[in-house]
Each structure stands twice: as structure tokens, then as C-alpha cells.
Recover the amino acids of this structure.
């Protein structure tokens, strides 16, 4: 079945095409967890390294109908040596406040898609970022949602209703408890001659706050330059790190197999405090060892400046080996 691209095959006796894919990843992270910044003044440097293994399996089923392509997608992940519940670090892994580790098995995504409509559990537009591993441009990014996307080629637009259930930011000094509320995200973008612009907004109905983000991407010389910015009215489910931030990266292919990406990011009013800010510079290198096997390494330097206190700085990063199939 080549109607939907490489790797699809017909399920015997049906007109449905199926693709099976995924990856196996081993990663060792080093440096302080990001909660060291969130909980300033406390000793959160519990460990200077952590290793874990992640397995990802996805099933992609598609068929042509009179209303367009009908798609069903399931992505299942299992992790060993993963952290338990708590906050999230810069790689999106959950951080156990008590420092314990556990194995986990979970459905990462599962959704149905038809004619531009999408329902289920999936990553929102807030999950996308710029090239490299230095930037942080979203907060919670995986929801049970209903979304519609229009793609006109040069122009595209979309809107989603996201269920907020116990993962909203508490800005009302209330216990979160078990609650259900709605978030709304909308995006518009265009692509023309190697230049892409995407503008994204999100409104958190629980926190009654919102955020807006823009990402500009352009082919420059031998690589791709990207610039991103976010502003938020107050902490919310889509963005909670700072009142505003700007980030930039430049990814260029040094060789056919090696891509190098320097990047930087600045956080203004860190933690929504007018007397705090933070900046970060980093470098990411990706190398294709052989077809289907990739090596990724990243490191960044962070500096936190709070009025009336000494500057705090730290270095972090990870080394990842991933077999894709």
C-alpha cells in the first residue's frame, strides 16, 4: 500500500493500510533538574546524572473514504528507570519530588482523524519548538482534545478544545483537587519560499489566563534559522515559566550525517517575578551512525539572576542513542 507513503501495507482482507513504527532509546542525562530553578533556596541537586531506556511503538491505520482519509493512530511507550510523579524537567520527563524511580507503561497518543477533524489524546501545537534541545517553549502539551485543522498549502489554521483535568496551574491559591475545565488553543501560519511563520495562542479556562507564541523559520545559507517568542498574562497550563521569553537557534548540516545546532533563550520575569530573569545558551549535535541509528548530544549553560541574591548558574545536558524503525 503506497497511497500513504513508505511502510504501509494492506491489512489482509480489507482496504485499510497499516504502518508499524517506533524506536528504542537509551539516554543518560546529567546536571541539575529544572526544579532546582523552580524551588530556589532549597538544595535540589539530588543527583548529577540519570539513565533510562524508552521503548516507543506506534500503529498508524488509514483508509480512503468519501469524506477524506480516515486515520486511527496509537502510540504506546514503556520506560525503565523513569522518574515517578511530580514536576517535569527540561526533557519532559516527570520528576519525582522524593527521588525514587519506577518503570512505566502508558498510551502516549491515541486519536481518530477525518477530514481535518481530530479527536482523542494527542500533543497540541504547543509541543512544537525550534531546532536543537536548548529551548523550552511550552508547559503541558498533551491533552484529550477535539481539534480542526485547515491546510491550504501556503496558509494553514487550526483550533482545539483541550480538557484540563488536574494539570492546570493554580493562580487562585486554591487546591487543584480533581477538576475538569476547558482550554482553547488556536494557530495560524504560512509557508512561502523557505520561510515559515506560525502564531499560536492558548487560553486556560481554569486559570483564566492565556499566552501567545510565534515561531519564525527561514532557510539561511547552509542551515535553518529559527526565532521564537512567548508572552503570557500569568501562569497557565500552556506556559508557566516566565512572563515572556525569546529563543533562537541555527541548525546546519556540517556533513551529510552530522547536524550542529547552537541556540540561546532568555526568560524575562522568571516565575512571573519582576526582579528575576534567566538566560541559557546551548549546543546540540546529531549524528547518524548508520541508517536507523542516531546519536544525539546536547549541553547548555544556565544563569539565573534574582534581585538581591547572588547569580546562580548550572550546566546540564544528555547523551542519547536511538534506534528508529
Amino acid at each position: 500500500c503506497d497511497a500513504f507513503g513508505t511502510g504501509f501495507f494492506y491489512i489482509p482482507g480489507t482496504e485499510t493500510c497499516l504502518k508499524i513504527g517506533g524506536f528504542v532509546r537509551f539516554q543518560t542525562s546529567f546536571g541539575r533538574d529544572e526544579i532546582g530553578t523552580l524551588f530556589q533556596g532549597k538544595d535540589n541537586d539530588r543527583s548529577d546524572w540519570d539513565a533510562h531506556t524508552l521503548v516507543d511503538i506506534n500503529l498508524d491505520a488509514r483508509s480512503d473514504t468519501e469524506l477524506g482519509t480516515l486515520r486511527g493512530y496509537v502510540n504506546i511507550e514503556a520506560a525503565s528507570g523513569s522518574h515517578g510523579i511530580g514536576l517535569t524537567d527540561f526533557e519532559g520527563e516527570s520528576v519525582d519530588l522524593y527521588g525514587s524511580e519506577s518503570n512505566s507503561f502508558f498510551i502516549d497518543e491515541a486519536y481518530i482523524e477525518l477530514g481535518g477533524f481530530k479527536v482523542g489524546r494527542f500533543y497540541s501545537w504547543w509541543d512544537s519548538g525550534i531546532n536543537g534541545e536548548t529551548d523550552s517553549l511550552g508547559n503541558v502539551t498533551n491533552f484529550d482534545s477535539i481539534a480542526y485543522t485547515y491546510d491550504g498549502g501556503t496558509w494553514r489554521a487550526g483550533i482545539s478544545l483541550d480538557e484540563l483535568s488536574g494539570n492546570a496551574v493554580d493562580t487562585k491559591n486554591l487546591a487543584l483537587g480533581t477538576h475538569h475545565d476547558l482550554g482553547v488553543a488556536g494557530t495560524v501560519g504560512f509557508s512561502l519560499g523557505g520561510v515559515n511563520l506560525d502564531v499560536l495562542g492558548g487560553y486556560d479556562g481554569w486559570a483564566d489566563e492565556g499566552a501567545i507564541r510565534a515561531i519564525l523559520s527561514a532557510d539561511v545559507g547552509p542551515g535553518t534559522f529559527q526565532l521564537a517568542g512567548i508572552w503570557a498574562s500569568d501562569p497557565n497550563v500552556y506556559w508557566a515559566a516566565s512572563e515572556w521569553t525569546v529563543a533562537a537557534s541555527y541548525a546546519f548540516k556540517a556533513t551529510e550525517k552530522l547536524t550542529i545546532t547552537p541556540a540561546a533563550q532568555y526568560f524575562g520575569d522568571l516565575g512571573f517575578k519582576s526582579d528575576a530573569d534567566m538566560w541559557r545558551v546551548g549546543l546540540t549535535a546529531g549524528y547518524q551512525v548508520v541508517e536507523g541509528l542516531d546519536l544525539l548530544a546536547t549541553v547548555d549553560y544556565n544563569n539565573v539572576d534574582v534581585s538581591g541574591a547572588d547569580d546562580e548558574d548550572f550546566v546540564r545536558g544528555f547523551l542519547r542513542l536511538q534506534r528508529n524503525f
Q: What stands out?
A: The CA atoms of residues 278 and 304 lie 4 Å apart.
